[in-house]
Model the fold of this input.
Amino acid sequence: MKLLTILSIAVLSTSAYAGDAAVPAAPTMDAPATETTDLNTKWKALDVDGNGTVSKEESAADPDVSGNWDAIDTSQDGAVDPQEFVRFFTKS
Ligand SMILES: [Ca+2]
Done:
C-alpha cells in the first residue's frame, strides 16, 4: 500500500510537470523543452537584476541553488551563468 502511494505521488508530480511544458522556453537555455520551462522560470526569479548571471546573493532566494552553490558554480567565479545552471539541474 505504501508503494502504491509513492507511485501515485510520482504520477501526479509527472503530470503537473508536463502541464508546464506549454510555456515557451527561453532561447538561452540549452536543454530538453520539458525541463527548460521550469528552469527558465526558476532562472528569471533568481536573476533579479537581469544581468544574465545569478550571484550568490541572488541565489539566497532559492534553497535549491544556494544549497548547491559550489556544485553549480563550476567555474568558481562567484556567479552562476545559464550554462552552469542548466547543466546542474538537468543532470541525472
Ligand atoms: Ca544577476
The chain has six helices and two strands. Helices lie at 2-19, 33-46, 56-59, 63-66, 69-72, 82-90. The CA atoms of residues 2 and 58 lie 39 Å apart.
